[in-house]
Batch of 2 targets.
Target 1
Amino acid sequence: MILATEIDALLLEYEGRLAGVDEVGRGPLAGDVVAAAVVLDPLRPIVGLKDSKKLSAKRREELSGLIKERALAWSVARSSVAEIDQINILQASLLAMHRAVEALAQVPDFVLVDGNRLPQWSFASRAVVKGDDRVAAIAAASILAKVQRDSELVSLEARYPGYGFARHKGYPTAAHLAALRELGVTPVHRRSFAPVKNLLAEALAE
């Protein structure tokens, strides 16, 4: 596990040239997995950056606007539902993070990635467990990714009424599972995930 002193040394050495990366949406039964990468500007600090899950939706929206305005570079990328089903959610998450870093307008000299796995890439990088609470740039990435993904799931509410996407954002809540049983599987559901896979198997067996 990377130590706090190591993180501080990297932030000092690569100030303004270090990207933080995070993804959102590994657990849901529906929707893409979304990743973001951010290079913060040390001359334009943003107060209040932390794990997006610990912020209200309103505060995430506010911070998202500030990040896009003040960061030296930022990007949002994804892996699709089809890719998740084809290569599994872990590999799809790593692919989305890889795409996010590749899409940055400024090529980073170092990358800090939330979690304990790194994508296969040529960037100098370290994985940081609980990085969205330990590194501001990773927290910024988590905020951008969550705001983007949540907005997409809200828009799915209109396309697929009755599933409650605007409320549960695709996560396997009791209401979502009940809607799946009643209304069936949509094109935005991940067929490789057990609850969806089992429903499809039951339908075939009838």
Target 2
Amino acid sequence: MSVKYHIITLGCQMNLSDTERVRSVLDHMGYVWTEREEEAGLLGILACSVRQKAIDKVYTRIHKWNKWKNRKNLLTFVSGCMLPADKEKFLKLFDLVFTMNELPELPGMIKQYGIVTPAGLQRSAAAIQGKTEPGQVPTLVDLLKHDPPTEEEINAIQQERGVMDRFWDIAPSYTSSIEAFVPIQNGCDKFCTFCAVPYTRGREVSRPSGKILAEVKYLIDHGYRSITLLGQNVNSYGLDRKGKEMDFARLLEAIGNMGKESGREFWVYFTSPHPRDMGEEVIRTIAAYPHLANQIHLPLQSGSDQVLVRMNRKHTVQRYRHIVEQVRKHLPVATLFTDIIVGFTGETREQFEETRKACAEFKYNMAYIAMYSPRPGAVSSRWDDDIPAEEKKERLHILNEDVARTALEWNRNNLEGQPVKVLVAGRDRKGFLSGYTEGKIVVRLLGGKESWIGRFMDVEITSVTPFSVAGKAVNVRQRVPS
């Protein structure tokens, strides 16, 4: 009988990407994924110390799981983004606690805990044939063996190994055949006063470009339609390896050229850049290559220079304005997304109004707005959280309405009544086929077939709301075989 496992992922897309590598390790150990946590003998969480709500969910889950141990054998683990203080508390609650760069050692940790792994009970056919041993961590080279890699690709994959390279070497178990996340960087050097990421993931480390390009090529060759490059500050990619590694613009250029040579349809996204490092060269590169999507996620955080100083953002509103002007100049049809914090320590009503003015000026298609809450470890956690909760809620509501107005205006002017290229990604909660435009505007399809999932199609937009649109397919494109 197979031993089943279940993982709960909290936080950002980076944790989702990390989960795919954790699943790959467990799959090769002989464990079998289950959607139902109560069926699992191995339960894990990828935590997120960046948000208190996410940490609260960790405690809720582990208390429930530890009660289950009274009636069945169960092994629990936690990893992901963890502050030192959270990690110390987790050590008393979970059986295994490890960081992502320790993932290659997970099979050994489980065995040392006294658990006989499914793969250890019998030699698999793959082992008999001299392939990957049961429990051995699968690598990117193994992934590429589906289509034998060239000597050049293997050499690229075997580049110098840094603190994260052994983790990045692990071939992910992609959870979708349409959309994929590719990590290009880990950690952050910016030390924004509200953020815990430098303390959970450490300093910036760039993944070798050879490994990134090899993984992207694999995804292109296997028919993936949407590829997202991930990092805390993607546009500072390569700065920690000056003279040894290409910068972010060159990396995008290399991927753009791969798209040209492939003859396939796909979109490449990235998240998220930092205004301090966002240069015009990156924007020009996106404009030059059709496969690089016309969508920019550029965190603002605040429209007040005074607040930005307290946040240690190291950019001004004018600097941000210059970047947006370059986006509008070189990518006139691009959508613009952002992140904003309301109610940061000391934010006056006048400073909040400056943020409203910035939103009105930049006309965002989407803004992820959060009420400020202190995170242990971050600098601002030592300051008074002096904005009342009700005031934060009011500012959140006002800003959401402001962004909704500009987003609705953009959708009416640019999408309504127009045929738009859409990637059909699946079904929404109400059962309708759903997808998104190149600019990541959500599209609900009125009618359609299951076979359309994973295809690009031309959709005539018949109705719009601030953050989504609806329409009918007018042309279903043939899917290129992988």
